Amino acid sequence: MGKSLKGNIGTLLGCALILIWCLLPVVWIISLSFKSQQAVTNGSPGFFPSSGGGAGWSNYSDVLQDEQFRRAIINSIGISLIATALSVIIATLAAYAIARLEFKGKKFVLTTALVIAMFPVVSLVGPLFDMWRTFGIYDTWLGLIIPYMSFTLPLAIWTLSAFFREIPWEMEQAAQVDGATSWQAFRKVIVPLAAPGVFTAAILTFFFAWNDFVFGISLTSTERARPIPAALSFFVGADPFNRPASLLAAGAVVATVPIVVLVLFFQRKIVAGLTAGAVKG
Amino acid sequence: MSTTYVQTAVDPADEADRPDSDRSRAENSLARKLVAPALVLMLLVTAFPMLRALYLSLFNYSLTDPDAREFVGLANYATALSDSLFWRDTFNTVGIMIITVAVELVIGFAFAMVMHKVIFARGVIRTSILIPYGVITVVSGFAWQFAFSNTNGFVNSWLPFTPDDFNWFGQYWSSMLAIMASEIWKTTPFMSLLLLAGLAQVSEDMLEAAKVDGATWWQRLYKVILPNMRAAIMVAVLFRALDAYRIFDNIFVMTAGANNTESISFLTYRQVIEQFQLGIGSALSVLLFLSVLVVAFVIVKLFRVNLADARQES
To answer: CB–CB of A229 and B246 under 8 A?
Structure first.
């Protein structure tokens, strides 16, 4: 009795620690984004904005009025969405083959994907930089979409083939026996079962593309294609020790909010994906 | 029409002989068509540029003076390998990798144990653990840089053993600590999710049996839980180690390589993108790729040795 109580307190403490761990830097950067520039440069080491040092929403309005920042957000959304869509479509085809069909070279595809997932991205920056300039796609959306696709494919293929393996494919035949055409059987039975997996893969892929920094700073030179993480790092001044901290924090919050919203959404979809997989019986 | 007839007339016997072969041939070709786009794209953006890097690394080639390009053989590799910068950066990278992965393994495992136990608020915990994963690495770099800053950060005032004006980015060790803190914060949740999946595979029956036999908590951890999670731990360590070996974003944002905190990825980036030295940069790219392979190999070997040890033990 006493032991389980101790265990419960331990678990509760553990939960509190996990929550603090996950949220502390996030709360900190949000708090920083509401501090005034003066309070920050004069040195206000407090965690929360002090009574005199608050800036309200002014950092946010400054950031949102910045043309380069707006371009970077648009670039990031556009590039990430296109790369995600294309990557998930291509990965779905491959994962379907891997999960459903027996074929020579299956192992090769999976190994290639694994190797690429572990590839040091910076290794490719030099040759890609050179090649993209030759092809004329340096500093364009396409020049980022292609590497993003290639680097998100392994993740998408692995996630999707794991999902697809769980799908009871016999149901497709059962539907056909019941009089559905094979297209109907595929559309009405398999697609709904596969959808949660595809969505999960899409979220993970989008994460990757939105997060990328190395390609973002190496394969762009202007605001034409520069995505938000790269733009943030170049935001006002090259001196890393005297950055406009509170302004940058506001920009960081704006760039992070969509992802965090997706995380919340993602959680539900995963649960949905798991329950859909449980239809098996 | 007639050919179809002939075929069906001939085929049945044929098909009876080897019923799988036609089907498997059809499956093979369909599968190849479905897999081709993914495979081509992946190879196009990795294998091809890598071969090109291999080729370019044999030249003295600078984009600021492309006409002066000349074949120099392995001279770029000799330059890189005899340069103290290369070894300093390799030392940094390996150090960051070993320390962060070790710390993450311990904390991540503790988190996984808590998440495994918790019944209430499971959704809240699992959602929040995805937040560091979702936060852009650059943003987490900023957050930690500002947190450690001696003008606007909070770390100095929270830590009892540092003076309020302690400049974390004034010297090597404290800069490295700050960089590792941001790395550990960001990726421990990922580690704990992988370990949680492994934890779920440990049989409850076995744990219960060990408990009945009077095993203490530590004994159960060492004799039942950890051995049964070896595969999950290996995957988690391998993924995280290779990821840590590529460290770039945090360093770029937090110190920009000041105080000798540069990583091997950063050195490669500087040579190629900032100084346009494609020849030596390509050599560094190849060396970086090879060192990642070595790291992967060592980790796989290391865990195999452990496996053999464990088998002898029992």
So the answer is: no
